[in-house]
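# step 3/5: fold
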Amino acid sequence: MHIVLRNLGRVMGLAMIASLLVGCADGDVRIPRSASDQRAGIKIVDVTAETIPSPVHGSASTGGTTLPVGRAGEYRIGVGDIISVFVFDHPELTVPLAEGERTGGFLVQSDGTISYPYIGAVSARGRTVAEIRQDITARLNKFIPSPQVDVRIASFNSQRVVVGGEVVSPTTQSITTWPLTLLEAINGAGGLTEDADATKVAVRRGGESYVVNLDSFLRANADSSNPILYGGDVVAVPHKRSEEVYVLGEVGEPAAVDVSEERVSLTQALARQGGLDETRANASGVFVFREVDGQTVVYRISLTSPMGLVLGTRFILAANDVVYVTRSPLQRWNDTISRVLPTLQVTRMGSE
């Protein structure tokens, strides 16, 4: 509620500034190409082909630190993993499955080792399956001639990824020998909810927070936006925040326009709200208010010429922009007359 009231107050204040900017002119609104009003704390820019601002990607902006894409590597065993070891023609060296168990093998202990018959402790933490197989084979060779050893991971327990936020089923997923990407992790949690913001997915890794634009991968197959995840990563999908621009003044239907899903130009926003009021609007007095680095910048664009109309299609609006269309000088005169006439009529009747 406080946010709504704050935005409403901001919109009202900017509309008053627009009326003051226009009030100083009798016809077309003329503002220097680049000027500043220090007293009002605003910067005024007359939009031309040279001064039109670059598009500001609101919801598509990733922000934060870039998450390294990473590479798929061999799985390295950790504490809690269960390793199965098979020695051909020597079933006594294979741990049998207990009743009700789905996997059998050797649990990697807290010290990073497993205890294997004949040879004792075998270092496992941080090693690959191939490295453990070579170690066991070399050490068993003292007891069994040319042992044929196979080592597999029966259960992946040491490396996990937590996925939460705006997903259907928040979950914890294990890292396996198959690389786990961000998209696969989210799909494993049931996918995104309707309220999810795929453009600002947070990934916390090693005490550092990153923001990933998964939407750019879904729309444009940008591999950097679908990174490989590692054990200990925490993925949080945020709630989608509404991103709007406010179209006010002499237009068909003053209202807020949603810009969270697509880029919207000034011309599109005006058209969606019924366009300029032909009898009341001043096409040379169209303003766009935008906060840039803590300063209010006022962009003025005239839609009275073909070039102005073209610039309107190239002017991409950003979230929280305020578009204000001023009244024409003739309409301001008519409004003044409509307010004065009743008073004149009452005065005339009183003097008769």
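# step 4/5: annotate
The mean pLDDT is 80.
# step 5/5: archive (pending)
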